[in-house]
## 1
Amino acid sequence: MMKYFYGIVILIMLLTGCQNENQSAEANTNEVPEYMADYVANPQVPDDRLLQESGQSITDEKGKVTLKRMKQINQTYKIGDMELTIHDVKLIHLEPDESLIDYFHVLTHEKTFDYVKMFVEINNTAKEKRKFAPVALLETDQGEKVSWEKDIYLEGLNDSLEGSQSRSGNIGFILEDSEQIDQFHFSTSAVFDQQDQKVAEAKTIEIEW
């Protein structure tokens, strides 16, 4: 009887392992979207570019990421002289490598967690320098609020842009309550010139899954 029991346990473990391998294999057969082709992998967060279907996962030296939800947006919003293009939005579960737990510890005490992220492109259409942040404050339909200071990617998307300069990358925020999210909205910053004078008001953008 015990041999039969252990046999069932081993079979379940093997099937689970095969399923996880298949999910990773499916992700690895996906092609990197053209708008992310030149993206340089973040040093703290696993590269999720191949994750395009719910349930797919990728594991690397930085940990394991599993895609929970994704939506292609591919929409450009104009905020004064700034053009903000949101290419995609993802809800991802992250199991960081032990070496990176301290990095995330200042943002969450959980060892694994969900975060929402967007891949964006910012384009300054003016001839002069502009200061602009794509996300100043994010709020979910569950009432959770996260400010720009808690962006986990830190890819310099809030830095000023010279005239006609563009920049692209990820911006993402850890969420404490992500299970019931159907939508969220975020406010950009206002747009400022090189003398720190406001030249355009902030814009609020809504995202629905």
## 2
Amino acid sequence: MKNFKKVFPILQQYTYLNTAASGLLPTPVMEWRQEHDLDFLVGGSMLKEKQGKILSGVREKVGKLFGCLPERVALVPNFSYGFNTLVEGLEGSEKVLLLEQDYPSVNWPFTSRGFDVRYVSITEKVEDDIEAAFAKAQPHIFAFSLVQWLNGIKLDQEFLKSLKSKYPDTLFIADGTQYMGTEVFDFDNSAIDALGASTYKWMNAGYGNAFFLFKKQVAEKVGAQTTGFNALQGKYKPQEGSFLGRFEPGHQDTLNYGSLGEAIDLINQIELETIQSKIATLATSAKEAFAERGLIDSAITNRKNHSSIFNIKGDEALVQKLRTEDIIVIARGEGVRVSFHYFNTEDDLNRLLSFL
């Protein structure tokens, strides 16, 4: 697949460097959504009879793509909903380690419930600081984003695995919203116990869909209480008191979750390995170009591995200036955030640089 402008028509008009804020809707997903609603229009409740098959299929696609058995995949409307369900199932007395200025939906659920919270600053040596904080605080829970939303700093997966081996009883909970869909990832071989991700960004699945992946032992530590009719039914949650069902109360939205399934089909068609390679190549070029021009912080330039999200020097005026040139970015934190996906090119980067 070479002509991404047919898959993402907005690229015919704009240089889109804002996936970290909102992914694009692919044509195949849009077409599937139209067919789904047409089936609902002419079939009414007969569409509902297909609900179990649709949802089970999406659960299986998520699990296969990210290395997690489908009976440990929960489909939720967004990361925040699933994460709050998870946190609400904790005792509330646990010591929690968080990252300063991490995504609010990671930190707020703990601070709003009065957990004993400690923080680590996000610097170029964030892994060293996390390890030091573990040694000092001995946290019961470590909650974090795999990729930071403000500046794109990406935690090292091998470091996390090493840390988990030293602290096996600590519950590692990750937000993968700015990560999932950018690299090959094997959940069951990772350090993470529970991982959630909204999929409207890098997976290009549209809004209203997300997922959580769980290691088997999480159900022993989290007493989630959410429930509702249909929560304990389905191919992968047949038993009463199903842990998975606690994250899926009531009837699920086949339009939005089905969109996730179609988005995964597109990812598989392109191949995640190819996506990873394209993103990494462009991210390396961008990092070098931004560093040469003094546009990014030393905390980014001095790190070996970085995501494709960058916070460059600028303000809202720059955002609006670029918008007049049909370059889409966003103001975040103290600068302007730009982000590159697999459908972006070196020409997109050069076009941005020409206006900077």
